[in-house]
Design goal:
Helices cover about 25% and strands about 35% of the residues. By secondary structure, the chain is α/β, with parallel strands linked by helices. The strands form 2 sheets. Strands 1, 2, 3, 4, 5, 6, 7, 9, 10, 14 and 17 form an 11-stranded mixed sheet that branches. Strand 9 and strand 10 (about 185-190) form a beta hairpin.
């Protein structure tokens, strides 16, 4: 087959709900029995699976006419070695796009919404039939890329983590986190249910829900309005402390603000156990944050790029 480029296209996919329940219960009949016993519609699982896999097959077939194609599941992304000239195509949802971006190095991502009826897809501007044309335009430098600012966290014991949407620092379970927070040349010992550090990309997600709840509790009239967030390429991050608890030794002054480009935040753990740091909702890929661990949060030099 004659291909238009020697560069490789990597398609990132995910397991559907149907795939996951079949893995859990071994057969489709057992999976169906389980799902229907919970009062859910098993045909919806099947329809979602069919639409998703049809989209993957369409994208793969079309892109094979352009270049060599490799399809990999999201579980392999953290350890996959991407070549400099690889083209990356992600077949949604939004979370898959975010969790792919942080493992790339200046690669532009073409994000495909496989099922626009089911998912709005804030980060998924294209559909399966668009893929080949978009990739060709990108190869020919006729497509713009939107820059995305990342958050970065480094600990004093040598761990590092990037956040595309947000980073969580706090307790593993429903307990209180104890730590010392230092930002903007101010320091405060706190007890809370954790800190959310949000990028511009993630500012309409977890951060937005926190602000909406806080405004509603405070009786603000505009609480029902959706928080519009800040720009994806903004040179700052935003932090919010969840449920800060005031006491004789813990304060509630430094509970919300920005982390600027050259002004890092430092958080030092005072928890004997169960402290964690994770990014983009993936708690399984976490850093331990127990007593004596100091985490430095900063605006990352590394950027992400989404094709628009």
């Amino acid at each position: 087959m004659h291909r238009l480029t020697e560069n490789k296209i990597i398609i990132i996919t995910r397991k559907t709900r149907l795939d996951e329940v079949i893995v859990k219960f071994n057969t489709i009949d057992q999976a169906k029995f389980y799902v229907e016993n919970l009062g859910m519609d098993f045909s919806d699982y099947q329809q979602e699976d069919h639409i998703y896999k049809r989209a993957v097959a369409k994208v793969e077939a079309d892109l094979q006419k352009i270049a060599r194609v490799q399809v990999i599941d999201r579980s392999y992304v953290p350890n996959f070695i991407f070549a400099k000239n690889d083209m990356i195509v992600v077949i949604g949802q939004d979370g898959l796009v975010a969790n792919t971006l942080k493992y790339l190095d200046n690669h532009a991502v073409v994000a495909i919404n496989p099922d626009p009826v089911r998912w709005d897809g804030v980060l998924l501007p294209f559909t399966a039939p668009d893929a080949a044309a978009i990739v060709m335009e990108l190869y020919n430098n006729k497509r713009k890329r939107k820059e995305i600012t990342f958050a970065k966290i480094e600990t004093n014991n040598g761990h590092m983590l990037y956040g595309v949407n947000d980073i969580f620092i706090g307790p593993k379970s429903h307990t209180s986190a104890r730590y010392m927070l230092e930002v903007d040349n101010r320091k405060e010992q706190q007890s809370s249910s954790g800190i959310i550090i949000s990028t511009g990309l993630g500012s309409t997600g977890w951060l937005s829900s926190i602000l909406t709840g806080a405004n509603r509790i405070a009786g603000q009239k505009h609480a029902a309005k959706r928080y519009k967030g800040f720009d994806w390429d903004a040179d700052h991050l935003c932090y919010s402390v969840r449920e800060p608890f005031p006491s004789n030794v813990t304060g509630t002054e430094l509970v919300f603000g920005n982390i600027k480009k050259n002004n890092n935040m430092k958080v030092t753990s005072m928890m004997a156990e169960n402290g964690v740091i994770f990014s983009d909702g993936v708690e399984s890929d976490c850093i331990e944050f127990n007593s004596g661990t100091m985490a430095t949060v900063s605006v990352a030099d590394k950027k992400g790029y989404l094709v628009i």
